[in-house]
Inverse folding.
C-alpha cells in the first residue's frame, strides 16, 4: 500500500480520536467563537473609557466647559476631586489622568497672561498615557480657543496637515484584536493537538503498536500534521468568516484563499513544532511547561501584541525564525491592507522554509526517539 | 443464591442485593453475599465480571447505587461509618504497583502511606523496618518503585497496605503478572501475617485457580452475578471436577459452557527440511547501566508454538520488541526468516503479526473499522480487504459484534479481536505478548484452539508469553526468563524431567530459586512479624497537618525526581522575563516613512528633515508615484507616507493656504494613534520653527499651556512600566501549569485511589499537593524580583515586605486555578488546554498589562475585574514604581484572598472522595 494511502488512513483515525473527546471539542469551539468575540470587543478603540479626574480650583464657566468636554466613549465621565486626592487617586490606579485647573485660570486667560493647566498622567499605563495626553492637550487647547473666540471658528493654520489612517480609518481596535486572537489560537491549538496527543499515545503504548506495523515514523507524523492541521485550519476559517466578518462585521480587504494558504503553511510549521515538543518532553508535565516557554514568546514577540519595529534588533532577528512572525505580517498585509501574492510572497516563502526546516528536524528527532523506544 | 443467615456483626462484609451500573453497562447484578471475619476468601472469575467493582464498593472508593453494603459492622454508604472504618481497611488495587509512585523509593512509598494514617516518626520507622525485613525488601529500600520487578512491586504494595494494621485486607489480583516463585513467596507472606494477626479478614480476587485452592472459602463470579460460594472442596464436590478451573467452567451458565471444548493439540509434524524462523544469538539490550536482556539465544522453527515465561520486568517484552524491530539490540543479533532484524524493514513487518500487552485496539473505531484499518495498513490490496475482514470475523467468531466499539465488548471478545487484527494480513509469524492475561478459562481455551489450528494447519510460527502454567504446558517448547537471562529452554516435559519435578510450576520455582540470588534472598529468612499494638490509634477526623504533609512530601519528592521540570519552571520564568521585558515595547520608534514630494523645493525638503531628524521616524527612499505609495504601504514597508503638494514652497511664501497630506498605517490601531500624535506634534513644531526663522518671533498657536507631568515613569519607558507588570503574569502561568496536572494525572494513572481509601480528606489532599508548587513559586518570585531590580534596573521604591506577602497570596491563588482545572478536567490534554486558555489570554489581555481594566468593555472587563492577576498587577506596579506599601494597597489584597477561598472551595466541591 502506498505511503500516501497509509497517511490518509492514519489521519482519519486521528480525526476520529479527536471527535470522541468532547471536552476538547467544546474548548476548541469556545476559543474560536466566544473567545474571539470577547477579545475583539474588550477595547473598541485605542483610547476607550480612560479614567480621568479634574481638580477644578478655578470654578469658572471656562473650567466647567473644559470638564464637560470629556465624555464617553474615549473618556469616562470625569470625576471632580479635591487637590488632596491627587496623589492617592493616581497611586491607587483609580485614574490615569488628573487635570488640574489652577485658581484664576479664566481671568488670567482673559488678561492674556497665557496660564497653564497641569495634566498628571500615570505613565505606567504607557499606551493610554501617551495617546490620552495628546488627546487631552488638544481638547483643552480647542476648548480654550473656542471660548476666547466666542465660538467662532479659528482661522486656518498657515500650513494644514491632513492626516488619514489607511486600512482602518477609524482605528477600530476590534479589527485588530479579533484577527490577532485567531492567529494566537491557531498557534496554541496546533501545538497542543499534535504534541499532547503524541504524549498521550506514548503513555498508552499505541504508538509502538503502530510502529510494529509497516508504518514509518514519517507516515505517522505526516498523518498527524494533515489531520490536526485540517482541524485547526477549518476552525480558523470558520472563525474568520463567521465571527470576524459576520458577527463582528470586520471588513476583510484581501483575498481570503490567499490568507488561508498562508495559514496552512503556518500550521504546517506549528504542528511540526508540536510534535517536536511532544517527542522531547518525557511526560505530560514537562510538556506543559515547555509549551508555555515556547508559546508565550511566539504570541508576544511575533508582532501581534506590539509592533515589531520597536523591539530590539536582536529580538527582531531571532523572531524571524518563528513562523508566527511571518504569519502575523502576512495576515496584516492581506486582511487589512489587501495585499496580494506579489506583496506577501516573501512571507509565504519564509513560512515554507521554516515549516520545512521544523519538519525535517522533527522527523529526524522523532525517528530517533521512535526507533529506540524503551 | 441467598446469603447464609449469620448475624451482621460476625461478618466482615455483607452485601444485600447490590447492583451497579456504569452508564448502560450492568457491572453488578443483585449480588448478595456475606464474608465472615478472620478468614481468607477468594473471589474467582475472569476479568471484567465485576470483582474490582465489588471491591471498590466495599472499600468505599465507589459510591453505592443500589442495595446495601455493610463493611465491618456498618453501612458503608453512611459517611460517618466510612470515615470511622477507613483506617481499618487496606486496599491493594489491581495492576502492578498501581497505587504506588514510580519515582519514589520503596521507603518513601511506605512512609507516604504511614503518614496518611497519621503515624508519628517512631511508629513509622519501626513498622517500615519490620515490614521490609519480613518481606525481604530491605536490600532494595532505596530503589525507586518503578524499577522493581513485578513480584517486588506487589510485595511493596502489600507492605504499604499493611502499614496501618488493617482488620480487613482487600487484594485485587495481587499476583497477576508475577512469576511463579514470587507468587509463592507472596502467599507465604500473607500466611505469615495472618498467623500473627488471626483476626484479620482477607479478601482476594484472582484469576489463578491454582491459588484459589488455598483459600478458606471461594465466591465464583461471572457476568456481575455470584454463581457459587463455598470452600474449594465444596465446589469441587458439587461439580465433580478434578480442578478448580474445570469446576469454574462447570459452574458457568449453560450457554457459555456450550462453547467450551477442551483444547486438542495435534502433534507437530516435523519434516526433514527444518526452517528456522526466529534466531537470536547473544542478544543484549542495555538501557544506561541496566541490562534488560542479557546474552539471549534461541532458535524457533516454522510452525512451532514457543512459550516465553517469566515475571514482569524480566525482559520478555523487551525481547519481543527486539524481534519486531521496535528496539535495536546493544549487542548480538536477531534474525527473522533468515534476515537480520532492522528497525526500518517494512517488508519484514508485513510477515509478522504483533499483539501487544493490553490490546492496542483503537477504541474509537468499530470492530469492522479496526480490522479494515489494519488490513489496509498491512498492504492487503483494496479488492481483497472486504473478503479478508469477513473471513477474520468468521474465523474468530466476531460476526455478531462487527459494528460494536471495542470498549463495549467483554475482554475475551476483545482479545479475539486483537488476535484477528494481528492475523488479518496472514502473517507467517505471530508475536503475542501476554494475550490471555485476565481472560476467563473458556475464552482462553477457545483462543488456544485457534492458535493450535494456526500452527498446525497454516504452519504459522507462534511466539507467545504467558503467566499461566497450563498454557505453558501446551507449547511445543518453552523458555524461562529471569532478570534478562534465559534460564532454560526445552519442551515442557523436558523442563519437568530436567529438574525431576512433579509439575512445571515446581520446576520453574526450582529454577528461579537457584537463579534468584540477591533479589529473593530476603524471603528465605523470614523475620518474625512483630504483633501490632492491641488498640490502634483513633483517626483524627478534622484537618490533619500530618496527612497533608504526606502529600506535600510526595509531590515535592516527585518534583525533585524530575529535575528537568523544576529547572524548566525556574529558569523558564527567568528566560521569559528577559524575552518579554526586552521584547514587549510600547515605545513606538523607528517608524518607516517616505515622502512623495511634488514640490522639490528646499522648504519641502526641510519638512521631511524635521521628521527624519527625530528618533521616532526613519526615512526611506522617496515615493515615486501613487502606485508606489500603495504598494509600499500595503506590504507594511511604510508606516507613514507624506505627500507634499506642487507649489508648496511658493504658496507658503505667498501666504496662500497649503495642505500637506499624510497617510499612516491604521492596521495596528494603538500604533496608529501614536504615529498620528507624533506627526501632529512634528507639524506644529515645524510651523513654529519656520515662523521663527522667517519673522524672528516664535508664535504661540495656543493661548494656554498644558503642562504634562508623566508620573512614576517620567521618560515613559516601556521597561519601567512593563517589567513589574510581567511578574504577576509569570507567577500566574507557571505555577498554574505545574499544578494543573497534579490531580488529573493521578486520575489517569490510577493512584487517585489512595484519596478514596485512606483517611486523607479532600482539603488535606489538595492543599498538600499545592504546597510544593507554592514554594517553587516563591523561589520564582525571588528570582524575578532580583531580575527586575538588578538586570533591568527598575528600583523597588515601595515595601518589599508587602510585595512578598502579596506574591505569596497570589501564588496560592494561581496554584488554586491550576487545581480547579485539574479537578474539573478528565484528561491531561484537556487540563493543559484549559489552563492555557484560562491563564495566558486573560493575563495578557484583560488584567491591565497594556490597558487598564477600568477601560475595558464587555466580557473582557468582567474577566479583568474578577481575575486575581489584575490586583496583583496593581500591587506590583504600586510597590515598584509608586513607592507604596500596605497602607495604600491593602484593598487590592482582598480580591486575591477572596479568589483563594472561592477557588479552593470550588476544588473541594469538584473533587470527589468516591467515584460514581
Amino acid at each position: 500500500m502506498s505511503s500516501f494511502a497509509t497517511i490518509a488512513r492514519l489521519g482519519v483515525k486521528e480525526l476520529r480520536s479527536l471527535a470522541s473527546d468532547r471536552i476538547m471539542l467544546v474548548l476548541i469551539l469556545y476559543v474560536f467563537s466566544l473567545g474571539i468575540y470577547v477579545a475583539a470587543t474588550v477595547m473598541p478603540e485605542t483610547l476607550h473609557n480612560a479614567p480621568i479626574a479634574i481638580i477644578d480650583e478655578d470654578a469658572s464657566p471656562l473650567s466647567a466647559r473644559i470638564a464637560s468636554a470629556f465624555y464617553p466613549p474615549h473618556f469616562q465621565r470625569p470625576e471632580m476631586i479635591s487637590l488632596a486626592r491627587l496623589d492617592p487617586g493616581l497611586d491607587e490606579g483609580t485614574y490615569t489622568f488628573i487635570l488640574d485647573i489652577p485658581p484664576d485660570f479664566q481671568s488670567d486667560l482673559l488678561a492674556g497672561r497665557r496660564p497653564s493647566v497641569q495634566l498628571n498622567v500615570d505613565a505606567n499605563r504607557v499606551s493610554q498615557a501617551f495617546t490620552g495626553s495628546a488627546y487631552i492637550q488638544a481638547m483643552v487647547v480647542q476648548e480654550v480657543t473656542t471660548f476666547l473666540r466666542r465660538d467662532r471658528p479659528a482661522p486656518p493654520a498657515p500650513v494644514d496637515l491632513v492626516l488619514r489612517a489607511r486600512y482602518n480609518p477609524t482605528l477600530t481596535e476590534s479589527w485588530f484584536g479579533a484577527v490577532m486572537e485567531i492567529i494566537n489560537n491557531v498557534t496554541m491549538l496546533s501545538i497542543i493537538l499534535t504534541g499532547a496527543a503524541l504524549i498521550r499515545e506514548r503513555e498508552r503504548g499505541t504508538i509502538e503498536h503502530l510502529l510494529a506495523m509497516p508504518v514509518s515514523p514519517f507516515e505517522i507524523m505526516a498523518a498527524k500534521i494533515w489531520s490536526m492541521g485540517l482541524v485547526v485550519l477549518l476552525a480558523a476559517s470558520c472563525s474568520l468568516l463567521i465571527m470576524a466578518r459576520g458577527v463582528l462585521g470586520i471588513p476583510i480587504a484581501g483575498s481570503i484563499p490567499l490568507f488561508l494558504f498562508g495559514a496552512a503553511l503556518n500550521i504546517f510549521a506549528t504542528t511540526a513544532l508540536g510534535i517536536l515538543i511532544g517527542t522531547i518532553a518525557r511526560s505530560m508535565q514537562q510538556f506543559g511547561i515547555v509549551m508555555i516557554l515556547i508559546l508565550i514568546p511566539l504570541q508576544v514577540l511575533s508582532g501581534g501584541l506590539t509592533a515589531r519595529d520597536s523591539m530590539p534588533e536582536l529580538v527582531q532577528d531571532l523572531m524571524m525564525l518563528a513562523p508566527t512572525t511571518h504569519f502575523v505580517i502576512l495576515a496584516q498585509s492581506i486582511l487589512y491592507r489587501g495585499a496580494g501574492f506579489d506583496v506577501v510572497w516573501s512571507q509565504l516563502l519564509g513560512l515554507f522554509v521554516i515549516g520545512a526546516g521544523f519538519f525535517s528536524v522533527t522527523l529526524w528527532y522523532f525517528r530517533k526517539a521512535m526507533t529506540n523506544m524503551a | 443464591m441467598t446469603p447464609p443467615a449469620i448475624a451482621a456483626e460476625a461478618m466482615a462484609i455483607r452485601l444485600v442485593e447490590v447492583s451497579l451500573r456504569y452508564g448502560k453497562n450492568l457491572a453488578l447484578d443483585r449480588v448478595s453475599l456475606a464474608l465472615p471475619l478472620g478468614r481468607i476468601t477468594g473471589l474467582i472469575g475472569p476479568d471484567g465480571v465485576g470483582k474490582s467493582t465489588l471491591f471498590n464498593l466495599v472499600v468505599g472508593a465507589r459510591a453505592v447505587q443500589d442495595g446495601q453494603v455493610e463493611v465491618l459492622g456498618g453501612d458503608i454508604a453512611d459517611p460517618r461509618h466510612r470515615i470511622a472504618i477507613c483506617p481499618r481497611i487496606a486496599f491493594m488495587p489491581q495492576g502492578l504497583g498501581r497505587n504506588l509512585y514510580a519515582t519514589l523509593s520503596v521507603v518513601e512509598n511506605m512512609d507516604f502511606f504511614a503518614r496518611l494514617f497519621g503515624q508519628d516518626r517512631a511508629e513509622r520507622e519501626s513498622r517500615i523496618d519490620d515490614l521490609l525485613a519480613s518481606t525481604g525488601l530491605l536490600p532494595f529500600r532505596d530503589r525507586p518503585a518503578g524499577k522493581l520487578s513485578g513480584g517486588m512491586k506487589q510485595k511493596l504494595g502489600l507492605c504499604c497496605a499493611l502499614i496501618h494494621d488493617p482488620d480487613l485486607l482487600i487484594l485485587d489480583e495481587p499476583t497477576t503478572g508475577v512469576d511463579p516463585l514470587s507468587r509463592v513467596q507472596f502467599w507465604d507472606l500473607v500466611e505469615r501475617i495472618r498467623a500473627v494477626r488471626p483476626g484479620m479478614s482477607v479478601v482476594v480476587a484472582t484469576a489463578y485457580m491454582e491459588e484459589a485452592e488455598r483459600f478458606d472459602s471461594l465466591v465464583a463470579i461471572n457476568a456481575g452475578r455470584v454463581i457459587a460460594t463455598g470452600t474449594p472442596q465444596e465446589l469441587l464436590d458439587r461439580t465433580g471436577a478434578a480442578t478448580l478451573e474445570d469446576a469454574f467452567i462447570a459452574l458457568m451458565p449453560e450457554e457459555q459452557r456450550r462453547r467450551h471444548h477442551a483444547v486438542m493439540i495435534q502433534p507437530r509434524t516435523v519434516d526433514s527440511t527444518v526452517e528456522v524462523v526466529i534466531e537470536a544469538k547473544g542478544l543484549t539490550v542495555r538501557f544506561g547501566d541496566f541490562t534488560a536482556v542479557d546474552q539471549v539465544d534461541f532458535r524457533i522453527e516454522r510452525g512451532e508454538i514457543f512459550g516465553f515465561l517469566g515475571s514482569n520486568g524480566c525482559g520478555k517484552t523487551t525481547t519481543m520488541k527486539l524481534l519486531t524491530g521496535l528496539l535495536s539490540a546493544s549487542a548480538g543479533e536477531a534474525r527473522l526468516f533468515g534476515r537480520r532484524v532492522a528497525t526500518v524493514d517494512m517488508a519484514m513487518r508485513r510477515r509478522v503479526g504483533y499483539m501487544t500487552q493490553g490490546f492496542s485496539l483503537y477504541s474509537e473505531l468499530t470492530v469492522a473499522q479496526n480490522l479494515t484499518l489494519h488490513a489496509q495498513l498491512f498492504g492487503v490490496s483494496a479488492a481483497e480487504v472486504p473478503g479478508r475482514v469477513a473471513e477474520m470475523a468468521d474465523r474468530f467468531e466476531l460476526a455478531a459484534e462487527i459494528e460494536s466499539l471495542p470498549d463495549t465488548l467483554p475482554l475475551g471478545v476483545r482479545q479475539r479481536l486483537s488476535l484477528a487484527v494481528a492475523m488479518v494480513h496472514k502473517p507467517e509469524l505471530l508475536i503475542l505478548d501476554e494475550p490471555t492475561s485476565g481472560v476467563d478459562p473458556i475464552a482462553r481455551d477457545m483462543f488456544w484452539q485457534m492458535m493450535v489450528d494456526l500452527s498446525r494447519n497454516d504452519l504459522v510460527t507462534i511466539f507467545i508469553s504467558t503467566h499461566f502454567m497450563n498454557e505453558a504446558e501446551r507449547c511445543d517448547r518453552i523458555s524461562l526468563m529471569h532478570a534478562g537471562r534465559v534460564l532454560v529452554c526445552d519442551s515442557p516435559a523436558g523442563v519437568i524431567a530436567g529438574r525431576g519435578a512433579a509439575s512445571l510450576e515446581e520446576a520453574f520455582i526450582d529454577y528461579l530459586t537457584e537463579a534468584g540470588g540477591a533479589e529473593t534472598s530476603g524471603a528465605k529468612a523470614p523475620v518474625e512479624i512483630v504483633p501490632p499494638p492491641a488498640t490502634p490509634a483513633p483517626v483524627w477526623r478534622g484537618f490533619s497537618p500530618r496527612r497533608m504533609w504526606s502529600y506535600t512530601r510526595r509531590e515535592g519528592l516527585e518534583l525533585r525526581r524530575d529535575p528537568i521540570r523544576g529547572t524548566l519552571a525556574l529558569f523558564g520564568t527567568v528566560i521569559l522575563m528577559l524575552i518579554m521585558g526586552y521584547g514587549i515595547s510600547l515605545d513606538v520608534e523607528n517608524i518607516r516613512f517616505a515622502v512623495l514630494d511634488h514640490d522639490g523645493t528646499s522648504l519641502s525638503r526641510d519638512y521631511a528633515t524635521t521628521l527624519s531628524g527625530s528618533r521616532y521616524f526613519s526615512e526611506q527612499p522617496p515615493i515615486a508615484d501613487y502606485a508606489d505609495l500603495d504598494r509600499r504601504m500595503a506590504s507594511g514597508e511604510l508606516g507613514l507616507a507624506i505627500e507634499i503638494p506642487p507649489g508648496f514652497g511658493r504658496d507658503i511664501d505667498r501666504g496662500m493656504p497649503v495642505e500637506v497630506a499624510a497617510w499612516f498605517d491604521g492596521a495596528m490601531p494603538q500604533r496608529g494613534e501614536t504615529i498620528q500624535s507624533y506627526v501632529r506634534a512634528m507639524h506644529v513644531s515645524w510651523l513654529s520653527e519656520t515662523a521663527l526663522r522667517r519673522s524672528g518671533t516664535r508664535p504661540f498657536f495656543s493661548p494656554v499651556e498644558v503642562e504634562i507631568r508623566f508620573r512614576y515613569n517620567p521618560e515613559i519607558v516601556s521597561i519601567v512600566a512593563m517589567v513589574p507588570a510581567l511578574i504577576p503574569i509569570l507567577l500566574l502561568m507557571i505555577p498554574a501549569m505545574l499544578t494543573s496536572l497534579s490531580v488529573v494525572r493521578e486520575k489517569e494513572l490510577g493512584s487517585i485511589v489512595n484519596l478514596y481509601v485512606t483517611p486523607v480528606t479532600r482539603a488535606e489532599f489538595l492543599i498538600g499537593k499545592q504546597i510544593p508548587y507554592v514554594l517553587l513559586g516563591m523561589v520564582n518570585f525571588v528570582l524575578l524580583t532580583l531580575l527586575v531590580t538588578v538586570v533591568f534596573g527598575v528600583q523597588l521604591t515601595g515595601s518589599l515586605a508587602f510585595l512578598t506577602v502579596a506574591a505569596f497570596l497570589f501564588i496560592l491563588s494561581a496554584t488554586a486555578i491550576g487545581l480547579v482545572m485539574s479537578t474539573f478536567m478528565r484528561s491531561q490534554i484537556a487540563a493543559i488546554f484549559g489552563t492555557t486558555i484560562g491563564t495566558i489570554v486573560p493575563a495578557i489581555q484583560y488584567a491591565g498589562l497594556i490597558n487598564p481594566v477600568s477601560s475595558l468593555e464587555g466580557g473582557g472587563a468582567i474577566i479583568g475585574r474578577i481575575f486575581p492577576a489584575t490586583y496583583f498587577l496593581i500591587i506590583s506596579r504600586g510597590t515598584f514604581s509608586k513607592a507604596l506599601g500596605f497602607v495604600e494597597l491593602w484593598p487590592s489584597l482582598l480580591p486575591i484572598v477572596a479568589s483563594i477561598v472561592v477557588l479552593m472551595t470550588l476544588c473541594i466541591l469538584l473533587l470527589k472522595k468516591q467515584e460514581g
Summary: Chain B touches chain A through 152 residues (CB under 8 Å). Residues 762-791 of chain B form the longest helix (30 residues).
